[in-house]
Each structure stands twice: as structure tokens, then as C-alpha cells.
Amino acid sequence: MELKVHINNVHGSQVAAKITGKFTVNDNSFRFTAIAFGRIGGHNIGAKISKATEKKLVKLGYDVEEIIAELQKNLIHGDMTLPKGLKKESFIDD
């Protein structure tokens, strides 16, 4: 499975931020939102997708939990594309 993440917008700081974007799995694109937390205990990201997206993923034969885990892993590791003008340094604490 090849999952790619594109960030549309980030609101917040290095301590906590709301992220909106889309992810693509094998040429199928879906929207997501996530809350990213840093500092105490390390980095953590909680990604959410809509019930409609969940249904589409299941219909396409994907495991929703596996997709969310991969999405969160990509976000934590910084494996994503960003809109022009937004830098990872503005919200990722390396």
C-alpha cells in the first residue's frame, strides 16, 4: 500500500496544532483532520477521517485502522508535502 500525505493547513504551534489535509492511497484521495501534540511524552498525532471516507475505504478493500495508523506514522515522521510557504519547522519540533 502506498499512502501519500499532503498538508493543506496547520493552526497552532509546536506544542499543539490542528492539521487539515488529504491523503492518497493508490490514486484514491481522501480528506483528514489531525491534532498534533508535542513536548511531554514525545510526539503524538490523532488523525480522523469521516464516516463517509471510512465507508469508501472499506468498499475499496482497505483496512481503515491500517490506513489511519499509516497516516499517523507519516505525519509523525514528517513524510508529507506542504503548501508553498509553510515550513515543517513551523510546527515540527525536531
Distance between the termini: 27 Å
Contiguous runs where pLDDT drops below 50 for at least 5 residues: none
Order of helices and strands: EEEEHH
Major pleated sheet:
4 strands, antiparallel
The whole-number mean of residue pLDDT values reads 87
Percent in helix:
10-25%
* Beta strand %: 35-45%
Strand order of the largest sheet: 1-2-3-4
Radius of gyration: 13 Å
Describe this structure in words.
- It is globular, with a radius of gyration of 13 Å.
- Strands 1-2-3-4 form a four-stranded antiparallel β-sheet, with helices on one face.
- The protein has one domain (3-77).
- It is of the alpha+beta class and 94 residues long.
- The model has no long low-confidence stretch (mean pLDDT 87).
- Strand 2 (16-25) and strand 3 form a beta hairpin.
- It is built from two helices and four strands.
- The protein starts with a strand and ends in a 17-residue tail after the last helix.
Brief write-up:
This protein is of the alpha+beta class. It is built from 2 helices and 4 strands.
What is the topological layout?
Layout lengths: L2 E10 L3 E10 L2 E10 L6 E5 L2 H9 L4 H14 L17
Antiparallel strand pairs: 1-2, 2-3, 3-4
Salient structural properties:
single chain; globular; 94 residues; 4 strands
